[in-house]
Amino acid sequence: MNEPLMSAFKIANYLLVNSQRIIGRKHLVGYPYYVVIDPSSVCQLRCPFCDGRERPPVMMKFHEFKRIMDSLGRSCINLELYNWGEPFLNKDTIEMINYAGRRYNTYTRISSNLNLSDDSFYEELVLSRLNSLTISLDGASQETYEKYRVKGSFDRVIHNIKLIVRYKKQFAKMEPKLVWQFLVFRHNEHEIEKAKQMARDLLVDNIIFVKPHIPPEFMSWDSSRPEFSNSRRHGLGQSKDVLRMKKKCNWPYTSVAINANGSVSPCCGVAREEDDFGNIFDHDFASTWNNDKFKSARSYVAHHLKKEETDHIICAGCDIEGSINFAPNIFQVCYYTFRPLRILWMKWNRYKIRKFKMESAQYLGALMGIFFLR
Questions:
Q1: What whole-number distance in Å separates Cα of residue 136 and Cα of residue 111?
Q2: Whether 224 and 345 share a structural domain
Q3: 202 belongs to a structural domain
């Protein structure tokens, strides 16, 4: 199937799945278009409240990944090639990226702690079909960074970012888009402005500041800034009804998470394997996607009410319902599926930024000239 035809198929599947989500169907015709595949549940860091250690340490083999993509690739718009572990510890990850991009035209994202010390790896990464790379860097110094990213090296991450930027420039590559993700805690919130300046200096495409999900026993880590605080999530001074999300979760309709051992989760936040809905290596995905557990999950989110018949699935006890949806509109879907359109948009944005900087410099120069001529 050629690229334009495959893109049209993905958009048709997107419209079909969402029409069924709106009417609340339990048995779906169509497949998920947002797919999380974890190539590695192993990580070299020891972040204090990461749930990844609940999963068995497994590296997915390329032939296993290929089998999954051959089931889901035609419908997959966005592929998240990470979840519980560090994806770049798996030596097959770049081959996985290239297979998904070249064979199925997926928009592929990876989130990494970027502590890998092999410089040659990053040249290969830039030349791959990776579209977006999120760098987990929670601080602007080693002191703040290592408090959460235990065993991580701040200098190594900065060095690797510079390598990627250099290779992108060398090979005239617009992608992968580089996103610095900064989880905001009480111990690093004072470095937000410093991080913004560092991101500009490093030529990172974007920096985002994220409110982490902090367990109750770690509330001393909670940010003092209201926009990053977990106090509402843990119900401090609020009723349970206020805490329930107003937005419906769309995961059982539009998305799926597949772990390194093939276990299928209803969303990327399910830490325990016992709460999964099946295994893609034991049964074909079509039968898993419409099994009793997935149907119960759809019934639960469609009515947004807790029912006795859904108490046996993890969705019924979820406290982050609706907050991690992947819900692109049709224009964003076109951005993800049509690569020429995406590259054109990125070039246009880069041109606008460059033009703004030039005009700002000219304006500043004119003001300084007026000041000194007075």
A1: 7
A2: no
A3: yes
